[in-house]
Amino acid sequence: MRHRIIVLGAGYAGVFAAGALARRLHPDDVEITAVNAEPDFVERMRLHQLAAGLDPRRHELAELFADTGVRLRLAHVTAMDAERRTVSVTDDEGTDQLGYDTLVYSLGSTVADHGVPGVDEHAFHVAEGHAARRLRRRLDELGETGEVLVVGGNLTAIEVATEIAESRPGLGITLATSGELGGWLSEKARRHLLRAFERLHITVHEHTTVDQVSATGAVAANGTVLSSDATVWAAGFSVHPIAAAGGLTVEDDGRITVDRMMRSVSHPDVYAAGDSVHAVDRNGRPLPMSCASAGFTARQATAAIIGDLTGRSITKVPLGYFGNCLSLGQKDGIFQVVDGDAQAKSWSVRGRGAARFKNAVLKGVMVTSSNPTNGLPARRHRLAADAGSARAADHRRHVGSP
Predict the structure, then answer these.
(1) What kind and span of H or E run contains 398?
(2) Domain extent for 310
(3) Residue pLDDT, tens place only, 157-178
(4) Assigned domain for 296 exists
(5) GO MF annotations for this entry (predicted)?
(6) Residue 85 parent element (H or E)
(7) How far is CA 229 from the centre of its chain?
């Protein structure tokens, strides 16, 4: 019987992991299944463009996995049982249970409502493909008149506000943030950001915490009423509760607790990557939820799985976070370099150069995700007879178990 590997989620981390494992492990020894709710690979870093009305290139998962041997299962993951090694999925035909020997958990994250009343009922977001399309339909309904409120001051909030403002100049755009807009940027980068907001006529409410969202806008903690025909909630991300409910050890924020190899500390047959994992970088800080972190953690999880199953040495992938890359519409942007403590350095790239850099990064991510061996011939390794014992021994060394 072949070793069953299931990859949950086919985002940046999941697509790379599934493809790399298929190209590195012998097909006679393994059966790899990728489970994803949508048939397309969702370029999450382009969802603000999709919502604003642009049409990023479509990437079908079936095409990305063609000739790799990866089986694609289009279904929603509803539960997992780490003790029984099963995953529950639901599609149009009903509910099914999938058994695994090795699991790659890369379900990513979704929008965090922070318990604010009305967010679920009335707000839009761009954390998932269907949500971005829903916002796009609402903006189409508004046409050239209407008010859009963006709640949040992070990268996503800034990109959503500027992209909509540039693509739909007839709409009035307001951004409300609990802090100082771009306060985490260097001085020159923040000045550039503020000039972009002025150029795009975006109204900013700083130090404004939204306490409630309604069908007609939002109410701030200081009593300010912010009228809106479409409120976009971009105040952070949270992970799905499936990992915790399934028996895995997680952190306070729900992210899976792992060792340096991305193995679950409670269930070493489960590896985590992407936004779902609590991975600690070289300076002892957890990596932020980001595309860059998805790349590092997916590479480490993949290397660990191959090593654990074949008995080969495991490459230690460097973990770190090096900068914030954000677009300000199609022809403007900022790349802010950060230090080891994720604090902004004085150096940044601004303007068209930053926009071109981010676009190159996005294209590079797609090339890597669809071809994890970077064009090199696949070297498919056979599984070792004692692979499970080797994995358990290495796991005990990392977590200090007897």
Answers:
(1) helix 387-399
(2) 3-108+240-321+372-393
(3) 999 999 999 999 999 999 999 9
(4) yes
(5) NAD(P)H dehydrogenase (quinone) activity
(6) none
(7) 28
How far apart are alpha carbons 306 and 304 in whole angstroms? Answer: 5
SS3 13: helix
Contact 193, 185 (CB under 8 A): yes
Tell me whether residue 69 is in a domain: yes
Say whether both 197 and 314 belong to one domain. Answer: no
Residue 97 CA to residue 266 CA, distance in Å, equals 22
Q: Identify which of 136, 179, 156, 120 has the alpha carbon closest to the alpha carbon of residue 327.
A: 156
Within this chain, do residues 274 and 306 fall inside the same structural domain, yes or no?
yes
Residues found in the chain: 402
Tens-place pLDDT, residues 305-316: 999 999 999 999
| Cα-based torsion angle of the residue sequence 207, 213, 217, 221 in order, rounded to the nearest 10 degrees | -30
Structure tokens at 10: 């086919």
Please count the structural domains in the chain: 2
User: What are the residues facing 110 on neighbouring strands?
Assistant: 238
CA distance 341 to 114: 25
Spatial distance between the Cα atoms of 292 and 362, rounded to a whole number of angstroms = 11
Q: CA distances (Å), 360 to each of 30, 36, 283, 365, in order? A: 34, 26, 28, 9
Tokens read off for 144 = 């050239």
Instruction: Decide the pairing of beta strands 333-338 and 344-350.
Output: antiparallel
pLDDT of 185 > 80? The answer is yes
Are the C-beta atoms of residues 269 and 308 closer than 8 Å to each other? no
